Amino acid sequence: MFISLIDAREFESARDAPDWVVIDCRYDLLDTGAGFRAYLAGHIPGAQYAHLHDHLSDEPVTDHGRHPLPTPGRLTQVFSGFGIGPGSQVIVYDAGGGSIAGRLWWMLQYMGHRKAAVLDGGWQAWLELGVEQETGEFHRPVARFAGTPNPHMLVRLDEVSQLPLLLDSREPARYAGEVETIDPVAGHIPGARNHFWKHNLDATGRFLPAGRLRQQHLAMYGATDPGDVTFYCGSGVSACHNVLAATAAGLPMPRLYVGSWSEWCADPARPVARGPKPGP
Predict the structure, then answer these.
(1) Which domains does the chain have, with CATH numbers?
(2) What is the per-residue pLDDT across 129-168, written as a single tens digit (0 to 9) for each?
(3) Is 263 a residue whose pLDDT tops 90?
């Protein structure tokens, strides 16, 4: 059972197992149709496509950020449509270091489906193997997904000010409020520290070894218990990458503030901090 990451060669040797479900999450924030076009042009054989807006986001209920979390009922419908049953091993990938695939991985974990892993190195790692691709669109038969949400994994807006440790997953310049290309206000939630999600990766776009990830995350956490850590980002997507990295490191799964900066900064009455924040 794979519950965090899977190596491309290990995946390639086992991907034909009948209970393995593969999902392509490639996506471009600046061209929202680019990921699906790339999928149609070539994808891992048997992979289905999940769109960030159509499948991994929905109307706001638990949060009001740019990519609201779908309700448990909607998630059950989406996962059933992908053919995910109780025994399915789900493998998700993208072409962005796991930044989008991590969102689908987190959603499955949130709904109690532990047998889900991100392909380490993503689409690029698959291409490096030199194996076949498939074109066009593929759909598995509908299954009956069975899952129950774990509310503790999810942080809502009214909890944010009481969190023991909040970590911002955006690039340092956005965290510091020096630039803001997406949201209407620049800066970060007061008291939050910064850990850019790309710091979990090596130069090839693969995750750092588990020992290094563990050392890196524990240094960020300082005296805070790992189970009391919460990550956020711009809209609750790339923060999942940090949650995944902590899990791959063998640490307790951090919590996720899904509304993230896009929800926090939407109300001008909420305080905003700018500038770098020292680590622990």
Answers:
(1) 5-149 (3.40.250.10), 152-264 (3.40.250.10)
(2) 999 999 999 999 999 999 999 999 999 999 999 999 999 9
(3) yes
Instruction: Tell me the catalytic residues.
Output: 233
Give me the chain's average pLDDT, please. Answer: 96
- DSSP string over the chain: --SSEE-HHHHHHHTT-TTEEEEE----TTSTTHHHHHHHH-B-TTEEE--TTTTS--S-SS--SSSPPPPHHHHHHHHHHTT--TT-EEEEE-SSTTTTHHHHHHHHHHTT---EEEETTHHHHHHHTT---B-S---PPP--------GGGEE-GGGGGG-SEEEE-S-HHHHHTS--SSSSS-SB-TT-EE--GGGGB-TTSPBPPHHHHHHHHHHHHTTS-GGGEEEE-SSSSTHHHHHHHHHHTTPPPPEEESSHHHHHTTSTTS--B-S-----
pTM to 2 decimal places = 0.96
Provide the 10 A C-beta neighbour count for residue 132: 9
Backbone dihedral angles phi then psi of residue 89, each to the nearest 5 degrees: -95, 115
